[in-house]
Amino acid sequence: MKIEKTGRSLEVWKLLISQEQYVEIILERHGMARCNPVKTPMEINIQLPVLTKTKVNMTEYQRCIGSLMYLMVCTQPDIAFAVGVLLHHVVSPGNVHMLAVKHVFRYFRGTSKYRLVFCVNDSIDSPPIVYVDSDWAGDRTDRKSISGYTILLDGGAISWGSKKQSSVSLSTVKVEFYHKWLLTCSVIDLESFHKSRAYRAKLR
To 5 degrees, how large is the angle CA 130–CA 79–CA 112? Predict the structure, then answer.
């Protein structure tokens, strides 16, 4: 992981966090260093079948997913949905699942230099900015919905996630309640951090 600071004065500095070197390493490791880039982590409206028998090298598939999960957790909120979908097929992956994994690698071929950017904020009490959304029965195999969220602070993402709901929602209202509950749990976890951040600023 690479962390950079730009600007000399406190009023203009930015904090940049990236994993460009690690992206290049995993692309080389999985034979995707010279692949053609794509613009999205996953094809639009793709539906991956649930298989009962492994059709590809399961160890290789799981190794690829592990590499993607590390990137997603640290600096890549944009692949959270794709990784969440692919993670459900680690037990019995097939050719279509491996192609979807390679699609994510192709996405990184064009976005390896992307970084999380945090800008200085004079108002230490400024609240986080929250985005949350969900589909309705987006997985056509089991008709379960998938929710996702991102929390921004000082212009950069500090928390994100994508999760399939554990039960089938019979209405969009239930879906809305679920992803708001998911977001509330994440905000509560960050509340103590935000309070301590403001307290330390007052001590300066």
Answer: 110
Enclosing H/E stretch for 105? helix 95-111
pTM higher than the cut 0.85: no
Q: Where are the domains of the chain?
A: 2-111, 126-203
Exposed e or buried b per residue across 76-102, where buried means at least 16 C-beta atoms within 10 angstroms of its C-beta: bbbbbbbbbbbeebeeebbeebbebbb
* Backbone angles phi and psi of 140, in degrees to 5: -75, -10
Encoded tokens for 153: 């602070």
- The CB-based long-range contact list for 119-125 (8 Å cut-off, 24+ gap) reads 119/14, 119/154, 119/155, 119/156, 120/10, 120/11, 120/12, 120/13, 120/14, 120/154, 121/154, 121/155, 122/11, 124/197, 124/198, 124/201, 124/202, 125/198
Residue 177 — left, alpha, or beta (φ > 0 → left; ψ -120 to 50 → alpha)?
Answer: alpha
Angstrom distance (rounded) from CA 169 to CA 122:
43
CA 106 centroid distance within chain: 16
What tokens were used for 111?
A: 């976005």
Q: How far apart are CA 183 and CA 68, in angstroms?
A: 23
Over the stretch 27-86, which tens digit does the pLDDT of each residue have?
Answer: 999 999 999 999 999 998 888 888 989 999 999 999 999 999 999 999 999 999 999 999
